[in-house]
Amino acid sequence: MEIATTEYKNWLVELKSKIRSSQIKAAIAVNRELIVFYWDLGKMISEKQTAWGSKFLETLSKDLQDEFPEMKGFSVSNLKFCKLFFNYFSIRSQVENEITENNVVKLPWGHIKLIITKIKETTEADFYIQQTIENNWSRDILDLQIKSNLYERQGKSITNFKNTLPEPFSDLAIQTLKDPYVFDFIALDSKYRERDIENQLVQHITKFLLELGKGFAFVGQQYHLVIAENDYYIDLLFYHTRLKCYVVVELKNTKFIPEFAGKLNFYLSAVDSLVKQEDDNPTIGILLCKDKSNLEAEFALRDINKPIGISELKLTENLPDNLKSSLPTIEEIEQELKRLEV
């Protein structure tokens, strides 16, 4: 059924004029103008769809594609997304008149569709919008971060940063850590060791750094320190380019016990004395355990004077046999690492 009313035809003429104007502006600022146009289009559709019935979007889609065959984005599906986009953000006061100032216009359309279909709360959406802009995430990376529930994990680690680091450095450091850390790109059997986790994290260093977050630069695995003629080895050592400090990461394939914090405190003192430069900020420690009691962790950190964060780590374990058979064994991984070292 076609919509043949004079009102619709006049409205369509106005819309076509807006599209042509948008095409000219897009030559200057392609993405921003496209997103603003989709916002306006969503608003116009929302205002007219009830009056013109269920066939409105099908008719509009055909008319726009006939008039602008060289342009994409006028499918029925995308017109629905435009309406959803407008409705999603217009529920907040004043946003309707400020969309051009909203950070969402800096995102590609594919990113926006992902956010508005997978995130319910606009506060959480704002978080992912800001993180995408700051970290230059691709759509696949944004999807991965949403699936891993980054919003709920960011800044949730148990730390003593408020007592051991000056502000605002302490606040930035707190937001840098997560709880739990999700290393679902690692697949291990039930008998894995801490070194197995360590080796796979290094083997998948790109995904590991992505989970750690922006600013982490890998320095070394089993980083060697000599103290009082004794050898010590830090599991993983990083340098954080935004915090301007070294970060010691210790892995424990067990539940947290207070003694772990004492050992990590020892390593931080050593790095501060033997590795840290004068213009570096104090070294930070991250202790990753299979499980923890938040109360025990808080008690363990209460009187420690070095900055430490304690989080859980989540791995892919106990896979069905038919999936286990397709994954490399720990022995195979170790053999591959030895081959690469030759």
List keywords for this structure.
52% helix, 18% strand, 2 domains, 342 residues, alpha/beta, 7 strands
Describe this structure in words.
The chain has helices at 6-26, 30-52, 56-67, 76-90, 109-118, 122-135, 139-147, 150-153, 161-164, 169-176, 194-203, 205-212, 258-274, 294-301, 321-324, 330-341; strands spanning 158-159, 181-187, 216-227, 230-240, 245-255, 284-291, 308-316. Strands 1, 2, 3, 4, 5, 6 and 7 form a 7-stranded mixed β-sheet that branches. The chain has 2 domains: 6-151, no CATH class; 155-341, 3-Layer(aba) Sandwich (Trna Endonuclease, Chain: A, domain 1), CATH 3.40.1350.10. The chain is α/β, with parallel strands linked by helices and 342 residues long. 27% of the residues are buried. 52% of the residues lie in helices and 18% in strands. The termini are far apart.
Largest sheet: 7 strands, mixed
Overall pLDDT metric: 86
Q: Structural class of the secondary elements?
A: alpha/beta
Number of domains: 2
Beta-strand share of residues = 15-25%
Number of strands: 7
Identify the CATH class of the largest domain. Answer: Alpha Beta
CATH architecture of the largest domain: 3-Layer(aba) Sandwich
Please count the helical segments.
16
Name the helix and strand elements from N-terminus to C-terminus, one letter apiece: HHHHHHHHEHHEHHEEEHEHEHH
Low-confidence parts: 318-330
The radius of gyration computed from the alpha-carbon positions, rounded to a whole number of angstroms, is: 26 Å
Overall body shape = elongated
* Percent in helix: 40-55%
Distance between termini? 72 Å
User: And the CATH topology of the largest domain?
Assistant: Trna Endonuclease, Chain: A, domain 1
